[in-house]
C-alpha cells in the first residue's frame, strides 16, 4: 500500500488506440511515454499504468465474428482482456527496471508494501473495462487523480464524427457525463470513459481528466498544475456558486462539534482568526497586506485593528454580502488566478485554506498571481494530507479538490523563479495541525 510520507499515485489509463494503430505498434508514442514517466518518477511521482486493448482487441474480435458469424459478450470481453494483457506486457518490458514485477491482472490480489514507483495493470474479467480497473486502483491505493489518455482532446456534448455542431466541454459533473455516455457497457464501446466505471467513480467521488495521450506536453501541464486542454469530470461543480450562503453561515463544511454559528464554533473560529493575525503581526510586520480568498473579511478586520493596512479579495458574492459593513470598503470581488491588483502592491500576500480548493489546472497560475502582487512576502496556509486533525474535527468538505502532501507544495514553491521558499522563519503549529509556506520575493 502507499506510505504516508509519499504522494498518492497517479493513475494513467492508456487507451489501446495509443499503443497500437492499424499500422502497427506506436513506438513513437511509447518513446515519449517512457521519457515522460521516468522524468516524473525522478521527481518523486508514482504511477499506475493501465493498458487498454484498442485496435488489437478489435482486430481479433472482428476476425472471430467473420469466421463464426457471431460471438457471446463473454468471448468478446475475453479477447479484449487478453489484448490488454499483451499491451501491458509490452509496457512492463519498457519499464522493467522501475516497475513492480507483477502485472495486475486480478484486482482482488492487493499489492502489499510495494516499493517500486511504477505498477502496470491490465484487464481482469468480463464486464470490466480497463477504465473500471483504473477506478478500482484509485479506490484501493488512495489515488485522487485518474488521467484517461485517449485519442481525443476533449469530451464533446455529442459524437463529433457524426454531429458537425458538437462542441467540447472543459468541465462536467458525473451526472452530466452520464447524460452524454449513458449507463450501459458493451464490449468495445467507443466512449471517452466507460459508463460503468463512471458510476463507480461518481460513488467514490473521484476526479478524472480525459485528455489526448499523444500530447505529452499537455500531460506535463496536468501533472504540474498548469492550465491544460482536456475535460475534467468531477463529483460536484466546484465554482463560485458552490460557496453559497449556507457555506459561510456554517451549514456546510462545519466542524464536527457544531455549526460555526454555535457558541463553541464561533469561539473556535475567532481564536483561529486571532492566532493568524498575531502570527502575521509579530513575525512579518507588514505595513499593508492582501488576504486572497478572504471570505467574509474577518481576518482583514482583525489585522486592521492591529494597525495593518489590510485588504481582501473574494470570489463569492455571498461572502461579500455577509461581511460586516465596517470591513466591506476594504474587500473586493476577484479571482485568485486573475487578481485585480498591480505588481508589487503589498508587503504581504496571504492565503488561508484556499489553494487546496483549486482545480489542478489553476494551481500554478494562482501561485504566480500571489507572487506577482507581492513586493516582499507571500504566505500560504494550505490543508495538506499531513494535517490529520482536520479529519478528526471537520466534516467532509467536497470543495477540497487538491489535497496533496507538503512535498508537492514545497516543490511548486521551490521551482518558482521569482520567490524563495523560507525555511523555519515563521512560527507554526505542529504539522499534524497546519502546513504554512512562507516565500520571499526575489
UniProtKB/TrEMBL annotation:
Its EC number is 2.7.4.22. The keyword Transport does not apply. Residues 290-375 form the Methyltransferase type domain. GO terms for molecular function: ATP binding; S-adenosylmethionine-dependent methyltransferase activity; UMP kinase activity. Pathway: Pyrimidine metabolism; CTP biosynthesis via de novo pathway; UDP from UMP (UMPK route): step 1/1. It is an enzyme of class 2 (transferase). Keywords: ATP-binding, Cytoplasm, Kinase, Nucleotide-binding, Pyrimidine biosynthesis, Transferase. Residues 10-212 form the Aspartate/glutamate/uridylate kinase domain. It comes from the Bacteria. Gene3D superfamilies: Acetylglutamate kinase-like, Vaccinia Virus protein VP39. One of its GO terms (biological process) is UDP biosynthetic process. SUPFAM superfamilies: Carbamate kinase-like (SSF53633), S-adenosyl-L-methionine-dependent methyltransferases (SSF53335). Belongs to the UMP kinase family. This is UMP kinase.
Amino acid at each position: 500500500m502507499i506510505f504516508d510520507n509519499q504522494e498518492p499515485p497517479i493513475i494513467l489509463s492508456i487507451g489501446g488506440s495509443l499503443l497500437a494503430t492499424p499500422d502497427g505498434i506506436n513506438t513513437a508514442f511509447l518513446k515519449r511515454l517512457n521519457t515522460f514517466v521516468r522524468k516524473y518518477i525522478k521527481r518523486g511521482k508514482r504511477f499506475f499504468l493501465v493498458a487498454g486493448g484498442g485496435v488489437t482487441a478489435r482486430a481479433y474480435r472482428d476476425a472471430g465474428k467473420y469466421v463464426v458469424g457471431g460471438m457471446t459478450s463473454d468471448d468478446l470481453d475475453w479477447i479484449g482482456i487478453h489484448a490488454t494483457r499483451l499491451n501491458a506486457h509490452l509496457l512492463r518490458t519498457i519499464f522493467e527496471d522501475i516497475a513492480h514485477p507483477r502485472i495486475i491482472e486480478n484486482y482482488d490480489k492487493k499489492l502489499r508494501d510495494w516499493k517500486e514507483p511504477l505498477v502496470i495493470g491490465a484487464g481482469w474479467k468480463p464486464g470490466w473495462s480497463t477504465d473500471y480497473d483504473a477506478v478500482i486502483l484509485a479506490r484501493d491505493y488512495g489515488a485522487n487523480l485518474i488521467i484517461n489518455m485517449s485519442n481525443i482532446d476533449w469530451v464533446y456534448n455529442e459524437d463529433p464524427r457524426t454531429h458537425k455542431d458538437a462542441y467540447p466541454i472543459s468541465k462536467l459533473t458525473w451526472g452530466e457525463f452520464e447524460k452524454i455516455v449513458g449507463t450501459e457497457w458493451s464490449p468495445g464501446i467507443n466512449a471517452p470513459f466507460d459508463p460503468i466505471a463512471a458510476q463507480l467513480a461518481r460513488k467514490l467521488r473521484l476526479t478524472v481528466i480525459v485528455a489526448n495521450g499523444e500530447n505529452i506536453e499537455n500531460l506535463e501541464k496536468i501533472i504540474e498544475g498548469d492550465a491544460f486542454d482536456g475535460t475534467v469530470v468531477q463529483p460536484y461543480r466546484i465554482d463560485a456558486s458552490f460557496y453559497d450562503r449556507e457555506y459561510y453561515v456554517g451549514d456546510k463544511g462545519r466542524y464536527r462539534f457544531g455549526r460555526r454559528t454555535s457558541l463553541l464554533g464561533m469561539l473556535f473560529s475567532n481564536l483561529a482568526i486571532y492566532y493568524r493575525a498575531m502570527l502575521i503581526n509579530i513575525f512579518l510586520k507588514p505595513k499593508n497586506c492582501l488576504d486572497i480568498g478572504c471570505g467574509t473579511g474577518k481576518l482583514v478586520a482583525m489585522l486592521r485593528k492591529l494597525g495593518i493596512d489590510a485588504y481582501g479579495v473574494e470570489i463569492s458574492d455571498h461572502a461579500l454580502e455577509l461581511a460586516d459593513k465596517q470591513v466591506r470598503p476594504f474587500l473586493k470581488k476577484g479571482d485568485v488566478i486573475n487578481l485585480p491588483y498591480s505588481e508589487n502592491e503589498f508587503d504581504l500576500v496571504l492565503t488561508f485554506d484556499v489553494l487546496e480548493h483549486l482545480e489542478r489546472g489553476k494551481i500554478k497560475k494562482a501561485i504566480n498571481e500571489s507572487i506577482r502582487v507581492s513586493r516582499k512576502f507571500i504566505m500560504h496556509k494550505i490543508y495538506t494530507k499531513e494535517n490529520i486533525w482536520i479529519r478528526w474535527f471537520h466534516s467532509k468538505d467536497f470543495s477540497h479538490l487538491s489535497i496533496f502532501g507538503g512535498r508537492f507544495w514545497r516543490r511548486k514553491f521551490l521551482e518558482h523563479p521569482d520567490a524563495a521558499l523560507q525555511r523555519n522563519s515563521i512560527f507554526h503549529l505542529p504539522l499534524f495541525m497546519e502546513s504554512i509556506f512562507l516565500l520571499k520575493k526575489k
